[in-house]
Amino acid sequence: MYALTECIHHRRRAHLRGTGLHWGLRRLLQELWIADGLSQAELAHAVRSREASASNMLKHLVDAGWVERRRDAYDYRISRVYLTEKGRALRDAIEQECAAIHKEISDDLGAQDAKRLAALLSKALDRLLSAEDEDDETGATGIYDSPSPPGVL
Prior knowledge:
- The structure is a single chain.
- The protein is mainly alpha-helical.
- About 65% of the residues lie in helices and about 10% in strands.
- The chain has helices spanning about 1-15, 25-35, 40-45, 50-65, 85-110, 110-140, and strands spanning about 40, 65-70, 80-85.
- A three-stranded antiparallel β-sheet has the order 1-3-2.
- Helix 1 (about 1-15) runs antiparallel to helix 5, helix 3 (about 40-45) packs across helix 4 and helix 5 (about 85-110) packs across helix 6 (about 110-140).
- The protein is globular, with a radius of gyration of 17 Å.
């Protein structure tokens, strides 16, 4: 299992190398790919980070041209974050890379083993998500509150 995880991370790192994105920044982009135009507070909540940490990460994304901030049309106290064309294009590239990784693994394993692996990974994800819910109840901070510096994957 460790080898599979490392393989996927290696491929993802190789794909993102040179983009200036580290994991925490990519996670913010992922939330915007789901729902563009979130407020900074909504983004911080979505990635389980403090607003100050999310603000710092957003600054890197704005400086790199991945996103832009705009004042809310109805409440000027709120700043909303929107993907730029560059940010939207990265989503397509990452989705294609992930699809290629999944196809490669499925082809190597065969249909039956790929199905079994998917079931095991789904079970592991359910366990991890349940552990995150337990952390929420205990007040643990998110992993994105201490992001690596920009460009470090």
